[in-house]
Amino acid sequence: MKIIDFKTPARLEDAGRTLKELGEAGLLLAGGTSLVFNKGKAGRTAVDIRRLGLSGIKELPEAFLVGALTPVAELQEFRAKGWALDRVARAFATQQIRNMSTFGGNLARVFRWNDFPVALLALECEMTVRTLTGQDRPVRGSEFLAASPRRFLPDGDILTAVKVGRLASGWGFGYRKEVRTHADFSLATAAVAARVVSGRIVELRAAAGAALPFPKRLEKVESLLVGKAVPRKGLDEDAFLAEAREGCAGLPWKGECGFSDAYAAALAPVAVRDAVAAAVRDAQEGNHG
Amino acid sequence: MAETRKISFTLNGEKREFSVLPDEHLLHLLRRSGCKGVKFGCGEGSCGTCTVIIDGRAEYSCILYAFQADGRDVRTIEGVGDFDKPHPFQEALVESSGVQCGYCTPGMVLSAKALLDQDPRPTEAKAREYMDGVLCRCTGYEKIWTAFRKVSGGGSDGR
Amino acid sequence: MAAREFNVVGKSVKKRDALALSLGKPMYVADFAPEDCLIAKVLWSPHAHARIKSIDVSAAEKMPGVAAVLYHGNVPRIPHTTAGQGFPEPSPYDTFMFDNKVRFVGDRVAAVAARTAEIAEAALEAIKVEYEVLEPVLSIDAALKEGSPVIHDEADASILIPVPYEPKKNVAARVAMKVGDLEKGLAEGDFRFDETYETQYGQHTPMEPHVTMAHLDSEDRLVILTSTQVPFHARRIAAQAIGVPVRKIRVIKPRIGGGFGAKQEVLIEDLVGMLALKARKPVLLEYTRAEEFISSRTRHPARVRIQTAVKKDGSITAIGMDVITNTGAYGSHALTVVCNCGSKVLPLYKTPNVLFNGTSVYTNLPVAGAYRGYGATQAAFGVEVNMDQMAEAIGMDPAELRLKNHIRGGEGSPVFAALGEGKEGVEQTIGSCELDKCIKLGAKEIGWRKRKPHTEKTGRLRRGLGMCTLMQGSSVPEIDMGAASIKMNDDGSFNLLMGATDLGTGSDTILAQIAAEALGTDIEKMLVYSSDTDLTPFDVGAYASSTTYLTGSAVQKAALKVRKQILEVGAALLGKPAAELDLKDSKVVAKDGSKELTFSQVALHALYGANQFQIGDMASHITHKSPPPFSAHFIEVEVDTLTGAVRVVKYVAAVDCGTAINPALAEGQTEGGVMNGICYALTEEYRFDAKGKTLNPSLLDYRLYSMRDMPEIKTILVPSYEKTGPYGAKSVSEICINGALPGISNAIYNAVGVRLRYPPFTREKVLKALAEKK
Question: Does B30 contact C at CB distance below 8 Å?
């Protein structure tokens, strides 16, 4: 892909209209860090929306409203009760990439290895899409992330914000990204949100990605773990491993970067297991709510 | 052939105007504008030798389009220290023997400066996080790290 | 740290270019490209093995902005080697500037110089090539199989020196030596081991890819500014390949962004020079990172079979080493690397029976060349893991087994004389060896005593300790030469001119330290200029761990010659015999303290006063032995038994490099080598598709550690004194990279009881080995 022209619209509406006009020749530009993977020759006109004020994290009573153009570094540095996305941000590539990449970019142009889709599947979230007619259309996170977001973003519609649920009392979040080196693309990503009450997992949302063609919720893992008792202190090293393995079995695990599918299938449940353990510990430590 | 467009940004404290091609990356623009300290190492945002500081944040100029820098504040290594008055981290690098071939050094200096400007005494974990974007094949990072801890309140062999 | 005390030598003086580099001053090849410089791009072969049936460059030539197009049809066909080695090179002349055959995906097909990169790329696309695709040879076994396609079937490939060269069998080199009787020796042991190891492709990944710029100066001479470790070989070989006399070319090496062996190669100088000659304008070729992976040089993958036997008392009765290296599509460094597998590893342990066989084969894969360690990396891996196995078998501490068997000061080895670099080696006895102390200090630092067998380890995360001992060499004796010249200036400063190449190692600094020491002056007075074939005297360049030991001696000799001249002028001025004078603190001083003169006074008198002459001289040096540095590495790893992930917790490298001319720089070499070794052991590898195409030529998928990944590294310099080296120095730069493969493999064994012999030790391999163990 070759940028043959660029436009920096002053208003969101202009951006939408321009994108619609350009059609296939248009390219919505946030941070632009994923463009390096587009090796084609097609000429595109970039529509730069980085400076339309769609950046920032706003605290709402039960959620955080994260602007789509918020740099990943801002998520990395944000601290608040009930906020856990800093852990995801910290594991994201390198600092320079965290400074340049945007939250929305990672959601809207999905590569199999993208980190935030996995995390958001585990958390309650809602996307806001600004349509060409100027309306803000809410889309449930689970729907938005169920398949390629392009189907939600026909030329002209723009993802502007994501409302991420605030982790309430009793909740914990765990995130595992299996990598060869810290800045590597993920071999297997797992994100878990768990609510622990009186020594029992009462709610669990688990999601995996990178080793799957598309990030997804692990319903079977969830059903196996909901209701499970957890010790007050000192989780066993292999706590939740059996459930993770059973729950992950049969899914289309895929190895990348030279790793085999069999290895991915062996690795993924461990990542899930570790994320569950981290979520449970996080919940028991009462870090949120 | 695409036409050139005019952009302007502050480069090392000076407001400058440039004529750029839409697909020209900032690295290319900076080098042809005299900033030879910004290096080419990979062209895909994976090695960090092209690091510049934009609006106070370290970024990879090799994957940033020049037009994306329009209206912003750009600082390259040329804007950090000089022979008479090097930046403390540059000085520490020299004293700690943290420079071998030097190709990654500007990237390291700018990564460190961006961090220290924001947080003069980062924890070790934070420092490693913020310095993780520049690769070095010569030093094994040891003496670069020693130099960094010298200027970030971590002591000369604090880990 | 030094065994003796000196004034300048042995001090960690500041690296002279460190500040300028930290300030980002323009000091690298690409920084000097003029405004009107043409950009060169290369058309690479998409096939691993093919003949070029036809090639039509006419459309490219006609493109506006295109200044020159080269291909096999319009350049001379001159067989040569790209290996940066002395003449006659011990590598086959099997390379041509452009050939009508391509031998790996990424081989040269054509090249263009144009006004912009974009135009050059478009011109490449306009070149029409018709290939006759041939069956590729993509492994060592395929290369050696009867009836395999012959990669170098050209009639004009040859080798200049009398060594085996069998291209029709895809064999680029063969070497063998023996002492005693291997079979007999193996039978004498109480335990014998026969293990095969296989090391992988790896790339140096210097942060600055290969880059060369050429232009014609005002006397119509070709000036090549290049990122090279071997400027003089580059001049000679570029002249040869272009077809002009050496005097028509000047090669200049400015600051370079790392080499590690990748730039001990005359890789693109011929091409860029030729383009500049045709275009009659400056031409710049800057490799992309992908080209650096695919079309520069790599480490030789090697299959290493090690047979060893040991008696219960720990004496080693035999060592057999059978190495087959994959040299890729061209044979540069094929013979010498495989020789070094034996020569830099086998002498370490005393044993009456040694058998060494080395073979290097051609394949249709990326070209292997020189890479720090140079064969010792691959071979020491095998020997050091076998050592670990033998220790276990006899119930001896692995460190004890090394202490019992390693070569000592005053001892020699028949391997030294038998194995050189293509010809016979040079006999030597060890003049300095503090390996015992390296082992003891390293063991203490890692906490070797708390080591427990893997059978006692439990839990998901298991830690293990492993160690290894190493040797390397210092220079190629009797073959390589270095020279230096020194002249004195008005203010008592000196110009030190050397061909020796500083690739970031700091050789400019340490050589200035040696000169300053010999001249009785301080480092501030030394002005260093290195690596310009017109202005600096000859030096083979930075390889074979030569610069300190070889060039250092040349510098010392030159300085001593100049010292004599200063003393003579001083004697005349002070009216005292030279024998009663000394040089100290930049002054000529009477030993009895009665009189003194500053260096400046001496210089002014010599330049302007009476009997005027330029105080200065040149000296050359060849070495007569290759004294090994010694090192002991101790490593703690942590293995995650559920994911297979291996983490290095702590890495201790204790090294005896004789006198460390600059201890901080010696540490820096060790730390960098160790980190490189760790990545090579754990993450680095090339992946190829079924047709020989490299799948991961990118730092995004060829993983290197960042500051966030780095383990704790502790370097311990253990001084010794090598009489034959300048101020007691030996080498330090290569040995440190060889410890990670065996040390980590041994540590993994101590953690989880599996022996890994196929690096990189990825999580998948570890997990698989753990599963197979159950």
Answer: no
User: A53 exposed, middle or buried (CB, 10 Å; 0-12, 13-18, 19+)?
Assistant: exposed
The residues that bridge with C158 in the sheet, in sequence order, are: C93
Instruction: Tell me the CA distances in angstroms from C194 to C82, C183, C606, C607, one per residue in order.
Output: 36, 12, 69, 69
Beta bridge partners of C111: C42, C70
Answer yes or no: do C603 and C503 share one domain: yes
pLDDT single digits (tens) C370-392: 999 999 999 999 999 999 999 99
Which residues are bridge partners to C329 per DSSP?
none
Three-state secondary structure string covering C617-681: EEEEEECCCCCCCEEEEEEEEEEECCCCCEEEEEEEEEEECECCCCHHHHHHHHHHHHHHHHHHH
Continuous segment of H or E residues that includes residue A164: strand A158-165
State the pLDDT confidence band at C4, using cuts at 50, 70 and 90: confident
DSSP E strands: which ranges in C513-558?
Answer: 526-530
- Is C522 in the same domain as C455? no
3-state SS, residue A58:
strand
The residue ranges of chain B whose pLDDT is under 70 are 1-2, 155-159
| C273, C281 Cβ separation under 8 angstroms | no
Q: Give the 3-state secondary structure of residue C562.
A: helix
- Which CATH architecture best describes the domain B88-151? Orthogonal Bundle (1.10)
pTM of the predicted model over 0.90: yes
Total domains, chain C: 3
In a shared domain, residues A122 and A176: no
Query: For residue C121, which residues of chain A lie inside 8 Å, CB to CB?
Result: none
Q: Nearest residue of A to residue C700 by CA position?
A: A184
> Chain B residues with CB-CB distance to A under 8 A?
2, 5, 22-23, 44-45, 48, 51, 54, 57-60, 63-65, 67-68, 70-71, 111, 129-133
Specify the CATH number for the domain of residue A38.
Answer: 3.30.43.10
| Disruptive mutation site among A257, A261, A272 for chain C (greatest number of C CBs within 10 Å) | A257
- The residues, any chain, with a CB within 8 Å of residue C280's CB and separated by 6 or more, are C216
Q: What is the CATH number of the domain that holds A117?
A: 3.30.465.10
Query: B134 CA to chain C: closest CA distance, Å?
Result: 7
Per-residue confidence (pLDDT) for residue B157, from 0 to 100 = 46
CB B144 within 8 A of CB B152: no
Which amino acid belongs to residue C108?
R
Residue C334, token pair as written in the block? 């094929």
Backbone φ and ψ for B19, nearest 5 degrees, come out as -105, 120
Going by C-beta distance under 8 Å and a sequence separation of 6 or more, which residues neighbour residue A236? none
Q: Do C704 and B137 touch (CB under 8 A)?
A: yes
Which 10-49 residues of chain A touch chain B by CB within 8 A? Answer: 29, 32-33, 35-36, 46, 48
Average pLDDT, chain C: 97
How far CA A201 is from CA of A121, A171, A231, in Å, comes to 18, 10, 11
Burial class (CB in 10 A: 0-12, 13-18, 19+), C611: exposed
Q: What is the C-alpha separation between C653 and C656, in angstroms, rounded?
A: 10
Residue-range definition of the domain harbouring residue C535: 481-622
> Over the range C255-284, which residues count as b (16 or more CB within 10 Å of their CB) and which as e?
bbbbbbbbbbbbbbbbbbbbbbbbbebbbb
Structural domain of A31: 2-48
CB contact A8 to B (< 8 Å) = yes
Q: At C560, which amino acid appears?
A: L
Give the rounded distance of the alpha carbon of C752 from its chain centre.
34
Q: What distance in Å separates the CA atoms of residue C275 and residue C281, rounded to the nearest whole number?
A: 9
Parallel/antiparallel/unpaired status of strands C646-656 and C712-717: parallel
- Among B44, B97, B159, the residue with its CB nearest the CB of C668 is B97
